[in-house]
């Protein structure tokens, strides 16, 4: 497979064409952003760690019947994925109150929710990815009700699989963001699953092992990402 010209560069990844029109070549970057791009910086080795962690999770989910755009790793910071027509709805699954949910609802961070909360956000950098509901999604023709029902079911299944897997590694899955798209008409999980898109806390100490360390200037960001990878792989 040949890596060809760059198609797009986002906040966390570069996307390249390949000699197969159904496949893209993704390169993960060390660049870090927060608060809709208002805060910018660099996290050493973030690209490699997010690529490897995402590949790990995509393989785990595939073993449990959840299909994604992931095809294969090409290097420590590169992977090949299936091309997707992205559905512009970001899905956030929350198990424990943190971040914007804690602020919005006046909850103490760390409050365990009595049930899992699933939220939808309009994927728009220009608008700051606003929170939306099913009526907004239908009015804007972002996705069909059937697609959103499937997306919700997949998101909850992903939550179930990841929570159990991480608990065995002494990690709490606080919340996480998913993106979906269509590949030749098939709904697939896309984007990444990493400390950039998830909140991971140490189950015992509640130490944050995710991008919140960058958002909140807590320090030791690279070490936190490495710790997640170590607990997943033993390496």
Structure description:
The chain is of the alpha+beta class and 235 residues long. The chain has 2 domains: 3-82, Phosphorylase Kinase, domain 1 (2-Layer Sandwich), CATH 3.30.200.20; 85-220, D-amino Acid Aminotransferase, Chain A, domain 1, CATH 3.30.470. Helix content is 30%, strand content 35%. Strands 1-2-3-7-6 form a 5-stranded antiparallel sheet. It has a 5-stranded antiparallel sheet with strand order 11-10-9-12-15. β6 (70-75) and β7 form a beta hairpin. α1 (46-63) packs parallel to α6 (221-233). The protein is globular and about 50 Å long. It comes from Desulfotruncus arcticus DSM 17038. GO terms for molecular function: ATP binding; phosphoribosylaminoimidazolesuccinocarboxamide synthase activity. Pathway: Purine metabolism; IMP biosynthesis via de novo pathway; 5-amino-1-(5-phospho-D-ribosyl)imidazole-4-carboxamide from 5-amino-1-(5-phospho-D-ribosyl)imidazole-4-carboxylate: step 1/2. Residues 6-231 form the SAICAR synthetase/ADE2 N-terminal domain. This is Phosphoribosylaminoimidazole-succinocarboxamide synthase.
